[in-house]
Amino acid sequence: MWFKNLRIYRLAPSWNFTQETLENALEKLAFRPGSATDMTAFGWVPPRPESGLVYALDGQYLLSLRVEKKLLPSTVINQFARARAQEIEEQQGYKPGRKQMKEIKEAVTDELLPKAFSIYRDTRVWVDTKNRWLVVDAAAAAKCDEVMGALAKVLDPFPVVPLYTELSPASAMTNWLVSDEPPSNFTVDQDTELRSTNETRAAVRYVRQAIELDDVRKHVEAGKQCTRLALTWADRVSFVLSDGLDLKRIAPLDVLQEGRIPAHDEAEQFDSDFTLMSGELSQLLEALVEALGGEKQA
Length: 298
What we know:
The protein has helices at residues 19-27, 74-92, 98-112, 141-154, 169-179, 213-221, 254-258, 266-291; strands at 6-11, 40-45, 55-57, 60-71, 117-128, 133-136, 160-162, 186-196, 203-206, 224-233, 237-242, 246-252. By secondary structure, the chain is of the alpha+beta class. It folds into three domains: 6-72 and 116-162; 74-114, no CATH class; 169-291, no CATH class.
């Protein structure tokens, strides 16, 4: 249930969607499998069985975007295209030119698509209407862009804005390391990346190893800034903060796991886990924004 990655946005003041109105909006782009000739298809699906397109619990919404892609590797297309080009060469007496090869590949792709396998990928979205967060569970920017693009298609005007803080994450993380003073209620863990700010983009990484204070200062003096830093918040949640204000490798720690109340069935357990996750992560995000100097106002 826990999100593994957080790409964070703010709900704009114009956000006024209830569960019902948001559900109606998402219905405009509900997922339908692609046709035999579609390379991709996407749309909104219920985030859990027997729910609607919006799973709602005490002001917390859960959404899920499904993307379908056909598995048709370029090596397969090229193999069939070469065989087709060989047949055409024998017929016309000379090799197909660049334009003709392009047409051959397009024709081969159209013929193979109906036989290709489909894979499905779901990306979850958490909307906290109480604290006005919108969070996408995506490690890659491209997956997050898919979600935001799909939301923009059905919500007009688009009531979501980027999150900006007074301190840039890179400068703040660098300062925490140099001063050896992480913000209140946070501890520094053993994964760190420092990257040069010049055109070389030279980087040094410490994996499962604490970085010594002297080493930090040498790297900073050489023009590097901290771009990734493993942190733990309140001994409850560990994560890696990036210079783009993304949180990766989210993990609830033992104190939360031990306090998990066993449920009578799967539906009750899902409600319990979602309540726990949304409550803890909302507090974590507020604490992190405060540690970064507060939210920058437009």
